[in-house]
Amino acid sequence: MTTTPHTNSPRTSSLRTVARRTAVVSAAALLVVGLGGCVKSGRPEQSRAIGGAVACPVAPDPSVTGTIRIAWQEIPNGDLIVKDAGLLETCLPKAKLVWSKFSSGGDVIQAFGANSLDLGLLGSAPASKALSLPLDIPMRVVWVQDQIGAAESLIAREPSIKTIADLKGKRIGVPFASTAHFSLLTALEKAGIAGQAQVLNLTPDAIRGAWLGKQIDAAYIWEPTLAELHTEGAHVLTDSARVGEQGSPTYDLSGARADFVAQNPRFFAVWAAAQDWAVRLLASKPDEAALHIAGQLGVPVEQVLTQIKGYQYFDAAAQAAPRLLGGQLGSDLRNTAQFLLSQGQVDAVRPVEAYIAALYPDAARSVGAR
Description:
Elements: E1 23-25, E2 43-44, E3 66-72, H1 78-85, H2 87-91, E4 95-101, H3 105-113, E5 119-123, H4 124-131, E6 139-148, E7 152-156, E8 171-174, H5 179-190, E9 198-201, H6 204-212, E10 218-222, H7 225-230, E11 235-239, H8 240-245, E12 251-257, H9 258-263, H10 265-284, H11 286-297, H12 301-307, E13 311-312, H13 316-320, H14 328-342, H15 352-357, H16 362-369
Parallel strand pairs: 1-9, 3-4, 3-5, 8-9, 8-10
Antiparallel strand pairs: 2-4, 5-12, 6-12, 6-13, 7-10, 7-11
């Protein structure tokens, strides 16, 4: 296996965002009360593993060696099940798996650009941005962790904010370059108030602090932060399922550096088998799957069972089909890039063939061949 030197954290500078149609206020203006406790991107994180270890679903492969650097996020999907169960450690006994916690897909693509990460979770919006100009990061999409539904929502604090249009002039927190950011901008545009709300770039932890400090009026955010804000009187204005029905679906994806994918097909064959096992567990034994996810999120199992209803998960056969890694996802990524271009967040959109070429269905297909 070809590896590169490991670094503990990616570059900390934020991606440049030039929003022509959305009023953006610096997040620093909100930090007037303690918003400490933000997750540091790239911080190594050990599994809590309350779900227990699990046997490898395929024959372990000792030929895979070296250090593999993986980014994970606090999003309830199969990736957390694989991590909590220690599947990769069991299936790849000669490899060193380094899991690092990231707070957003924007941080993940920065780490790809800095060559400090091999594989990681990111949303379809940051993936589209990474594949577009000026970033043009050589990246492959290797798995669709989920299609986002009600688990990612636009919530408002005050009862007087009844519709999206009522957010005109209000302060909205969202992690920039994320699927939530893309869905928020889409929702504001469709409501006719693009550029008329104060959109603030905040991490999930910072959104939690700003919400408690009454420094924002609304937020577009995902689980588990979403559930935590619901306990503070929030009400939903729209969610990513409804935005998706309007022609703008969003996904959580596993992406990897293109050179790492090309050099390590055996790793990805085993990795995809582990991910497929996790998706099947979600479908057949949701209580058991939720136990693993709860171990990583540090929340009650009952809460996880509610959260996973807000996502759609896909097994290996569905992954490799035309709708996803078989081709259509590439068109969805380009459509997302077109919207980001209209918002000034990318400089240019590449031909659709470039986004389709970034898809890597081989690993998913290999699962069925075993």
